Amino acid sequence: MLEGMTQEDREQWVQQQREKRQQTMAARQATKTRQQQALSAPQKIVIDLDFPNLMNPSELKSLCQQLAYSYNAAVQGEQQLHLHLLGASGDVQAAIQQRIQGRPHWAVTYSEQPHHQYFK
């Protein structure tokens, strides 16, 4: 690709690539900042996941999708929210670990304790 370019075209292409990389890095940093702000947000949203034996596989799949939507809204919204995912165990916990690949990197409070024990 670069062999057919003039020296000036190459320099321009390299400069464009640097600018794209800088924009990408700035966007990543902004996302990390928003995630950290969400953890310290005064508004807390608690999602009770303490019902493993009440859901079939289809419902577990839907729950994971809804959790992903909720996380995105909590972090990317105009006002960040501190999301608490509490009480996940059994099939619910397994489904979350299997279906939500980036969940360990989410800026949320995640606990296996039920909400009534967590907030004592």
Please give a structural write-up.
The protein is mainly α and 120 residues long. Helix content is 56%, strand content 11%. The chain is built from four helices and three strands. β2, α3 and β3 form a beta-alpha-beta unit. The radius of gyration is 21 Å and the shape is elongated.
How is the topology of this model organized?
Elements: H1 7-39, E1 44-48, H2 57-76, E2 82-86, H3 90-99, E3 109-111, H4 115-118
Parallel strand pairs: 1-2, 2-3
Helix pairs in contact: 2-3
User: Strand pairing plus helix content: what structural class?
Assistant: mainly alpha
Q: What low-confidence regions span 5 or more consecutive residues with pLDDT below 50?
A: none
Order of helices and strands: HEHEHEH
Mean pLDDT: 87
Shape: elongated
- Bin the strand percentage: 5-15%
Helix content: 55-70%
Question: What gap, in angstroms, lies between the N and C termini?
Answer: 63 Å
Say how many strands there are.
3
The main sheet comes to: 3 strands, parallel
Radius of gyration: 21 Å
Brief characterization of the structure:
With 120 residues, the chain is mostly helical. It has helices at residues 7-39, 57-76, 90-99, 115-118; strands at 44-48, 82-86, 109-111.
Attribute tags:
single chain; three-stranded parallel sheet; mainly alpha; elongated
